[in-house]
Each structure stands twice: as structure tokens, then as C-alpha cells.
Amino acid sequence: MESWPPGGSGPAEAGRRLRGLHGADLAASASLLSGAGAEAGCSAPAVAAVLPAGGSGERMGVPTPKQFCPILERPLISYTLQALERVSWIKDIVVAVTGENMEAMKYIIQRYQHKGISLVESGVTRHRSIFNGLKALAEDQPNCRLSKPEVVIIHDAVRPFVEEDVLFKVVTAAKEHGCSDYDLEFGTECLHLALKYCHIKAKLIEGSPDLWKVTYKRDLYAAESIIKERISQQICVVMDTKEDEEHVGHRLKEMLKNELNHVKVTSGRDLQQIILEQCYNFVCVNVMTSDFEETQKLLNMLEESNLSILYPVVVISVQFLDYESVPFGQKMGNLMQIREFAKEVKKTNILLYGLLVYYPQDEQKLQESLRQGATIIAALIKERNSGLIGQLLVA
Ligand SMILES: Nc1ccn([C@@H]2O[C@H](COP(=O)(O)OP(=O)(O)OP(=O)(O)O)[C@@H](O)[C@H]2O)c(=O)n1
Ligand SMILES: O=P(O)(O)OC[C@@H](O)[C@@H](O)[C@@H](O)CO
Questions:
Q1: What is the ipTM of this complex?
Q2: Where in this chain does the record put each D-ribitol-5-phosphate cytidylyltransferase C-terminal domain (predicted)?
Q3: CA-CA distance, 394 to 376, in Å (whole number)?
Q4: pTM to 2 decimals?
Q5: 208: how many CB neighbours lie within 10 A of its CB?
Q6: Among residues 48, 46, 44, which one has the least CA distance to residue 7?
């Protein structure tokens, strides 16, 4: 049984070829394809999605169509695919792209390991692109891997932040609702098409503020900030020794909690589990050593996990050193290796930085360098600046 959330209702109305629906903020719409999967008693409708991605993004003002513009080095459309793909009850996703961009799209699917995606050629307008996607789902083509769905979600390829609950509401409404003049008054041209050609009046569903469309260049910056914030919600601190209250690593961890309100700061006791939970930020603490053994172990684990395929993972190798008792120059040779490590792991989308924290005997000075260290760590995680990888920052 598919994991359709509770509340899914009965079969679709027969005899209607296409039933247009629209989100309150114009983000998502759903159509019903007649007959398919609509047997009585089947509460989970067969759902597919069509993503129009055949536009040229003129208003963005850059040569690359906006759906292929990189955000943290990954094309925007890949984020949208990821958002739809994780919804287990969406069985097929059809993307409409221009013939010119077909190969680029295939590469994106392969590189970011997207599953269950079919491609069709887009049309000269958004509506034609959607129509081509719907045709691919409606036609009973021999050897076609697509199954005919009952409900189709139409979602712009340039709206990367769609959540499952909104999609669920839209799909449920597609099955349940009748008319609303209000929706037709305040909707967009999609609603008018639904009325004109299918005699269907649509229902508006309240969406979330994150459902906006990337249209102008500034929207790319906004999307990048939202993504950075989302992947900075958890930091794992890996200690080189047993963690106790007195350990400077523990104190740094507490400082980080103060610096980053609302961020979950955990210990790296069960790294495999933390990686599985998709934590994208690691602080590896070394006290009075200047090697990267612990950091390398962590990097190996991260590389094996493939965690960084979708988002850049930040690793900060922290070395606590007492520069007064141990001559700084003596340690430098070893520490400089970080530049090579960083270059190597950057290839797998891991951003490695070094941080030297002054570890004096004087308690007040120590407190000050811990505070500064926490500020630098917070900035590195929030910014994910790939230009600073391999640098040894000093607190
Ligand atoms: N012939 C077209 C035109 C648009 N779209 C898609 O429809 C969505 C929303 O359209 P819009 O924001 O207008 O995109 P563009 O047409 O690319 O932008 P612009 O109007 O600035 O050129 C986008 O995912 C876009 O790729 C499409 O599939 N086929
Ligand atoms: O051209 P605009 O940016 O105003 O709107 C594009 C919208 O029509 C499109 O994104 C759909 O969501 C709405 O039907």
C-alpha cells in the first residue's frame, strides 16, 4: 500500500478530461485524467507530476535558462525534482524541456541521482509544455514506462520549495471539490482555461510563503539563502578525546549553541547515524595535536556516504594550540597539509576549513578565543564560501 496520508478520499468523477486546480499563490495545480486508477474504493489516487521547464527565463537576464542556473553549484531544477521525488505517493514525474536542453537535463538527472523522471519536449508556451507532459501520461503508448495517473500535479520547475502537505491538499482538493467563483475571480489564466475548455470551476488552496517562483536574478539569491539556512540547522562536533565538561571542545560546543540559536549542536558519538540524519556540518576538534587523523577519518566516512551529492558539506578542523609554549612555526608544516586535503575533498563537494584556536593558560584569554572560534565556525557554516577552503583561520 502506498503511503498516501490519511484523509485521501474516493474515486474521481468520471467523464471529465481535465480538471484544473490552482494553489492560492499560483504555485501548484492538479488535473484529473479520466478513468485511470479511479476504481471505487481506492482511496489513494495514482498521482503523477508534470514540470514545465521549457522557458528561456528572459526576465532573469542571463543567458542560461533560470531552471538550469546553479544554486550552491547545483541547477535550480534539481532542487525542485528533489522536493517532488521525496513525496512517496508521486509515482511519475514528467519534465518538459526544449530539445536543445534535453541532454543537459539527462545529465542533471544522472549526476544528482534523480529517480522516476521522464522527459518530453516542451512547447512554445508554458501551457503547451504542460500539454505535452499530460499527453505523455495520458497516452497508452507501447513500451511506455509511465502508468496512467488519476491526478496530475502541475508544478513550475522554478519553484524549488514545495512541501508535501501543500501537494497533498491540492491533490485531495482535486478529487473532492466543486466550484468557487472567488477562485475564478482571483486566480490566474489557468483557472480560466479550466473553465473555458472543461467547464470546471477550480478550488484555491492556501500555499506556503516559500512557494514563490524564481523569476528575477534576486530570486536566485533568495533561494540560495533559504537553502543555506535549511542545511545549517544541525552541527555535529566530533571530539578527539572523551567529552567531559572541562574539555575545551565541550566548551566550544556550548559557545556554538549560544552563537547559533535554534541550531541543533550534537556530539559525533554515532557518526553513521548523524550522517544518515543528513547533518551537513561537522566540527572536528583536536587538542594540542597538529595532525589531521581524526579529520581524515571523518572525511573518509563522508565520502563513502555520498551525503554531499546534493548539498555541500562543511567540515571545520579545529586545532587548539598554545602558541606560547609550542613554537607556532614548528606546527605550521603539518597544518599546511590542509590545503591539499581541501582541494581533494572539494571534488566531492566537501568544503574543508582549518581553524586554529589559541589555548592559553589564562582563563579569560581562553574564554575570548573560544568565543571568537565559535563566531568563525558559525560564519563558515552559514556562508559555505568555497573560496575559503583550505585556509587556516585563527581565533
Ligand atoms: N514555453 C515555455 C515557457 C515556460 N515554461 C516553464 O514555465 C514555468 C514558469 O514560467 P516563467 O516563470 O514565465 O518562465 P520563463 O518563461 O522561462 O520566464 P520569462 O517569462 O522571464 O522568460 C518555468 O518553469 C518555465 O520553464 C515552459 O515549460 N515552456
Ligand atoms: O509570467 P508570470 O511570472 O507572471 O506567471 C507565470 C505563471 O503564470 C505560472 O508560473 C503559473 O504558476 C501560473 O499559472
A1: 0.95
A2: 233-374
A3: 9
A4: 0.88
A5: 15
A6: 44
